[in-house]
Structures are given as structure tokens and as C-alpha cells.
UniProtKB/TrEMBL annotation:
A GO MF label: NADH dehydrogenase (ubiquinone) activity
Role according to the record: NDH shuttles electrons from NAD(P)H:plastoquinone, via FMN and iron-sulfur (Fe-S) centers, to quinones in the photosynthetic chain and possibly in a chloroplast respiratory chain. The immediate electron acceptor for the enzyme in this species is believed to be plastoquinone. Couples the redox reaction to proton translocation, and thus conserves the redox energy in a proton gradient.
Name of the protein: NAD(P)H-quinone oxidoreductase subunit 5, chloroplastic
Listed Gene3D superfamilies: 1.20.5.2700
Upper classification of the organism: Eukaryota, Viridiplantae, Streptophyta, Embryophyta, Tracheophyta
Cleavable signal peptide: 1-17
Topology of this chain in the membrane: Multi-pass membrane protein
Amino acid sequence: MCSYLLIGFWFTRPIAANACQKAFVTNRLGDFGLLLGILGLYWITGSLEFRDLFQIFNNLIFNNYLNVFFVTLCALLLLEGPTPISALIHAATMVAAGIFLVARLLPLFIAIPTIMNGIAFIGIITLFLGATLAIARKDIKRNLAYSTMSQLGYMMLALGMGSSRAALFHLITHAYSKALFQNMVLMGGLTKHTPITKTAFLIGTLSLCGIPPFACFWSKDLILNDSWFYSPIFAILAYFTAGLTAFYMFRIYLLVFEGYFNVHFQNLNGKKKNSLYSISLWGKERKQKVNKRFYLIDLLTLINNDQKYLFFNKRAYFHRINQNVKSITRLLIDTTHFDTKNPSPFYPHESTNTMLFSMFILVLFTLLVGVIGISFSQEGTNLDILSKLLIPSIDLLHQNFQNSFDWFEFLTNATFSVSLSFFGIFIASFIYKPVYSVLQNLNLKNIFEKNVRKTKILEKIINAIYDWSSNRGYLDAFYGSFFITNVRKFAKINHYIDRQVIDAIPNGIGILSFFMGEAIKYIGGGRISSYIYIIIFFIHSFSNLLSFFICLLI
């Protein structure tokens, strides 16, 4: 319910209203599956205590008293726990609850390989889907939402491989890194306005990219290293997604903090159709008309109670940048005349001391929390802090070689993963770093226009990637075509049956009773003896007919 109210806070926006309804329905389905799984386990074991569940479950499996198919269904239903995505719960609470629940119940799942393979498959699909859907998002909250989805995929993949230690380690490191992070097109150039926030954001970005010595490097590299033991195909997809993660995370950083503050921009792509964005307190986009005859545009205003408040100083100028391809005229905002001592709440400025102190604590954890999962001894991996905290848990991949830790193998795999991360950062910098091409390349359609001759195949590939990401992997279209349409058809059929068949039975009985009463009234002629005779006749006829059918059945 809290997630429903949070997502639907801007209830006047159709997108927010639909999103909160979708979140509510999907969470109810997940809760229903979770409840069925819990009831199924209780029906099998007769207890809800973890210790009793593990003991009884293992005894039933050992004695072959357990229906594997039924347990598989119960376990898969348990995986459908609620994981709603919201701006305030990327790092913890309900997002982490599903991962922790699966990790806590992992001793139940590892006994059946089908369940473990299903968890790993769900993890790799979530991992790849989240990363690919984030590469063309323009909203920073949506980018971070898909980033959270991708990181949850890493955790589920680790759990499916049996490495609960790596999954929980990444859950901890990801939480601190993600806690450091509206339309990115309206941002840019925030470095000089929010330098401390920029530094914290950069540290969190590098951590999620898997750059050492930040926290996520240790946990992500541990998952990537374990993936080779489980499946080379899953390992290749996981490493490829690590490069994609570095690309879209650094893309967010460059679009938000580098370049210029993009409050207004007009006709940057050389086309006749203008793209004009506006900022509103209520998060709504409002179209504004621009007089094309003038180069000086009235800056953004907010209309509230029939009064206008200027967001920015009216002094503005145009900066002309000459490219090899064409010249682009863009609007820049002169921020030298703002009152920096008492900045407007709508003007970009650094956060308050309370928020900066919180970010400082998170930065320290992002820098140091990776230590809890690092083994500084060659004698074994169970000497680190995290392993001591997880002693009662079962780690399927490492249970046979707890007494060895190969730093050379770790550094070799780490070098490869870090190289992929740096390659993703380089590609993002190559595309989005030039300030004159940030907005051009935002849709990924002009990536190699300046240096590489575009071919039809390359154009098709770029358009396919952009369409896949911007359309959210066509999941909405798939659900709309196969589920929503069929559900509505079924609802119409059900409505017709309810009105014409179900309601017709009592209505028909009522009408039949009315006409029978009228017929008896006219036949009896108002005499009581005639009514009694007719009633006795029908009762006798009905009893004879019933006796006849009973004799036939006997």
C-alpha cells in the first residue's frame, strides 16, 4: 500500500495513476504466489520455523517422501515476492526483501537442481534486460530503476549458482552505492553548481561500474568469477552486461553533470520540428510557444495562482559552436547574476548540510564496505568478516574449497572485468562527452555520424537497439497483445454469461411463477377447493415423474 501511494503521489498525471495501479496489481499477484508457497511448505512440513523447515525438508528428500514437482511449484511461487521500484527504495527495503528471502531459503532450494537453474535463469534474464533497457532512457529515475533491476539480476544469478555469500555481499555494496544517486535532458552542467553532490555521484557511479577499490567491484567481481564455474554462457552474458552497466551509468553522469545547464534548447537537430522542454513544480510537461523571429527567448516561468515567478535571470546569450558537419546554435544560461547567498529553490544549488553529511557517510561506506568481503589471507575465504556473519548459511559453490583462495586467479578475472568496465566508460565518454553533441546523441541515432560513415546495416542496428530500449523490450506491447486483450475478451464473455445466463435463471423462475399463478387463478375460478385440487394434482404428477426416473436409474 505504501508503494502504491508513493508511486501514485502525482495522481493527476495519467502515467503516475496507471503506474501505481500496475504496481498494486502486480504486487498482489506476487503476494498471492508468496502466500501459496508458504502454505504449501507448511502443508508439507507442518512448521514455519527455518530450523524445522530445513531439517524436515532434508529428511523428506532423503527418504523420497517428497513430491519434487509440487515443491518446485511452491518454491517458484516463493520467488514472486514484491520488489516494487521507486525513487526512495532503490537501495533497500522491499527491493532487498525478495533477495534476502531467497537467500534465507536457499537451503531448501539447493536440494532440487530444477529450482536452482530456474533462479539462475531468472537472474540472467533480469540482469541482461535491465541493462539493455537503461541505455536509451532520458529520465534519471527510470535509469536508476533499470539499474536496480540489473543489479538484482546479479544477486539472483549468484543465488541460482549457489553462491549466497556473493549475492548478499553485492546486496550490501549495491545499497550504499545506489543510495548516493528528472529528465536528464533538462540537466547538464551541474558540476559548478553542485560540486560535492557531483563527487558523491561520481563515486557511486564508479562503484556500480565495478572500478576498484570501490565497494561494488569486490562483490560484482566475485559473482562474475563464480559464473564461470556454473555456466560459460551465463558468464559471457554477465561480463557483457558489466560493460553495459558501465556505459549507461557513466552516460547518466555525463548527461547530468557535464556540458551546460540545458534548461531550454531549440532546433538542435537541424529539423523543422522543435523540441522544447519545460520544468514544473508538479512534474508536468507544459508546451510553450516560442517566437522564431527572435533569438532571445523568454526564460522558463512557473504559473501559480495567476502569478509568474522567474526561474532564472533574463540575461541569456547564444553560443555558436562550429562543427565539421554543421553549425548548431544553442541557448546557454548566464548564471553570473544569481544571488548565490540566497539561491532560489528552483535554481541548481548544493544540498543542505544534513544531506551532505548523509552523503559523506554513504561515500565512506562505498569506499570501505568492500573490506568485509575481502580475505587478506591465503589460508581460506572464511577469514573475512562477511563469511563469519554467514556461517550458518550454505554456500554451494565454495563449500568444497573453503581452505583456498587464489589471489592470482582473482586478479586475472578482475583485470578482465575492469577492462570491460573501462571500455564501457570510454564508449559513453566518446558519445556523450562533447557538449555540442550531447543532445544530438541522446537518442543513440547519431553515434558515429562524425567519424564513421554510416551504413544501412549500422543504422539498422542502432535503430534496433534504440527501439528495443525505448520501448522497454516490447514487454508492454507483449502484455497488451496477449494478456490484457485476452483478459478483456474473457471479461466481456463473463459479463455476457452473468447477465444473460446466470441472471436469467432467477428472473425466469420469477416470470414462470407469475404466469403459473395467473393460470391457476383463472382455472380455479376463485374457489378454494379448486385450488387445492390443482395443487394436489401437480404434486402427484411430480412425485410419479420422480419415481419413474428413480426406477430408471436403479
